[in-house]
Amino acid sequence: MLSTFLRRKRSKSEMTFLEHIDDLRVSLLRVIGVFMLGVGAALYFYKEIPVFLQLPLEWAKDMDASMANFPQLREFTFMGVWSVLLYSAFAAGLAIASPFIVYEVARFVGPALTTREKRGLIPFCVGALVLFICGAVMAFTLLTPMSIVVWHSFAQNMGMVTDWQASDYYSFVVMMSLLTGVALQFPLVLIILMWLELVRPMTLLKSWRGMLFGIVALSAIVTPIGDPVTLGILTGVLFILYLIAVFIGKGIVRRKRVARGDKPDPEDEDLPDEDDEVIDVPSSPESHRD
Q1: From CA 249, how far away is CA 113, in angstroms rounded?
Q2: What is the distance in angstroms between the CA of the first residue and the CA of the last residue of the chain?
Q3: pTM of the entire predicted model
């Protein structure tokens, strides 16, 4: 116990490789413990959580009057019922564990950073958590109900009567929320890359066509149904966040370079300095003879 206390008092730079691995193991065990606590709570309230996950379906019924008589979710196999329970438990466990995941990442990386880098890490951790929650909420309250309405409208226009299997519905809601939350981390990744000066803000801005194509591809992966309505909304949100990220990154890079004594804009390094004189070398007489 004393050795553990003394080891924690040492800085990250003084720790051996095995001590780093042990510290990582402790962090993972904490995250897994909180995640299992959320899973246990979901299994205890197994009747209430599926009702909560059915809210997007109820909101879809309010959005489209033709879905008023939509049949109740059905499941035809025992394993399907078990899948519904697992999807509910997984969603609850991850929702409870997500703040602790961010905390453990900051705690593990923090001691190896300087004081200024630690202060800069806090906004990134808070931003990651806020963006994940906003993405999950947007998917749960807006994108998922709209996808259900579009899916139902297409089925009706094709003359099809469909029953949604419960396991398919719950997996759709959970994955849609989680993937949208992860997708909204994309602007934060761009800010980190600009903060580390691995890519220039103006380079990202000039490549907006390629970024738009990549955002459309990412949105198509996130939206399982891939309908044009939710795809367009998610693409628009991500593209706006991309522009905001470039603007924020430009300000961060400018302040960082001014504090370091460099030129405020990294693009200015490609331009000749005003003090540089262009020397005109006269041509030799032989060239005039020619």
Answers
A1: 20
A2: 90
A3: 0.71
- The pLDDT assigned to 231 comes to 85
CA–CA separation, 192 vs 140, rounded Å? Answer: 28
Q: Tell me the C-alpha distance between 26 and 123, whole Å.
A: 24
Asked if 39 contacts 89 with a C-beta cutoff of 8 angstroms, the reply is: yes
Residue 240, pLDDT score? 92
Q: Can you give the three-state secondary structure of the chain, one letter per residue?
A: CHHHHHHHHCCHHHCCHHHHHHHHHHHHHHHHHHHHHHHHHHHHCCCHHHHHHCHHHHHHHHHCHHHCCCCCCECCCHHHHHHHHHHHHHHHHHHHHHHHHHHHHHHHHHHHCCHHHHHHHHHHHHHHHHHHHHHHHHHHHHHHHHHHHHHHHHHHHCCCCCCCEHHHHHHHHHHHHHHHHHHCCHHHHHHHHHHCCCCCHHHHHHCHHHHHHHHHHHHHHHCCCCCHHHHHHHHHHHHHHHHHHHHHHHHHHHHHHHHHCCCCCHHHHHCCCCCCCCCCCCCCHHHHHC
Cβ atoms of residues 177 and 133 within 8 Å: no
> Which pLDDT belongs to residue 239?
92
Residues 6+ apart with CB under 8 A from 37: 93, 96
Tell me how far apart the alpha carbons of residues 145 and 163 are, in angstroms, rounded to a whole number. 16
Tell me which amino acid residue 49 is.
Answer: I
| Residues 215 and 163: beta-carbon distance below 8 Å | no
Q: Which residues of the chain have pLDDT under 70?
A: 1-17, 20, 102, 106-121, 224-226, 262, 264-290
